[in-house]
Write a structure and sequence with these properties.
417 residues, alpha+beta, 8-stranded antiparallel β-sheet, 5-stranded antiparallel β-sheet
Length: 417
Amino acid sequence: MGSAVAAVERTHEQKLDLLAEVAVKVGLGLKEGQELVMTATLDAVALARRITEQAYRAGASLVTTLYTDDEATLMRYHHAPDASFDKAAKWLYDGMGAAFKSGAARLAIAAGNPSLLSNEDPDKVGRANRAVSLAYRPALELITRHEINWTIVSCATEAWAVQIFPNDAPDVALAKLWEAIFQTTRINMEDPVSDWKRHDAGLHKRADYLNEKRYAALKYRGPGTDFTLGMADDHVWMGGGTTAGNGIYCIPNMPTEEVFSMPHKDRADGTITATKPLSHQGTMIEGIHVRFEGGRIVEAHASRGEEVLRKLIETDDGARRLGEVALVPHSSPIASSGQLFLNTLFDENAASHIALGQSYSSTVRDGDKLSKEELAAKGANESLIHVDWMIGSGKLDIDGVTATGKLEPLMRGGEWV
């Protein structure tokens, strides 16, 4: 759906400023008088400061940034007592939830080291992730229900860049990663704000088409994949931006190339093979191959990181079920770049994907007004996790299955029919 991104000559500093402006004005749609809660790594300070400036220029009443430090994270794994890994700063997440309830917007800068925890004890990694998921749950529900305006943008860091471009010197790798971020977030366009609006309209047009079709299920066929995924009752396809419960229009992911909806938690059957590695909480999981029966994963394998994958799907019962399905053409700008970003924000927009765990209530009709029990009756999944992984490629065919069981071509060779 993305238009070709034609480069415009700008300095690196000008591009950073423009990325910050687009994140605030297009991604968040920040309103005058609104508070902003931002999270970032220490490596992302320069971008965080620019976003802070743009937020205040847009009329933000207060910007609060919470920083994480990779080195401090590793110190915990190397020196903390075992009981530490069952704890999380609940007071912090309670505070974030309180901020969201009082009207604050949420912005996350994704810049983590994809392999930060790859050499750490998978049991400790799994326990720590579960503790955070439990503590963050009340605040996260406000995001998954789209009650607030929120967005995610990325910042290039050396630790990330050298893993993507291992044959380049660190400074060259960093420059290449920044350029890839600017390209895929449309910052290189002559007028990025207007181009984002055109791109957003295109994604909505695709979602409208799928909503008219009302497919009962999707049928996937590809190398190592033979899979049928039933859709939730009254499911809604979405793409691009959305109007949050607070009435503010935002685009949650920058970049974004997907149209997505809610699968039925009990209607997934067959085998799926991932087409890209999954970088999850600082660990790499490669060669994922799973089998579903009645909506649940009953077999799970990976050529690397299998123990982490198993810990992930053992988080709770919902972690073995699907909460999201997304369709992305293989010719998307990110896929066309041929670059594996080792970052879900980018890689999920390079390929059709599914997500284990929590459903987004906004992807079922009037879902934000339904109780948990009513959502579950529609097929919504509930879990402490929401983890996207990529199954699309240039060899994947997808059919839409009508209510009468008729198959209609939807994608061939990874492209819209």
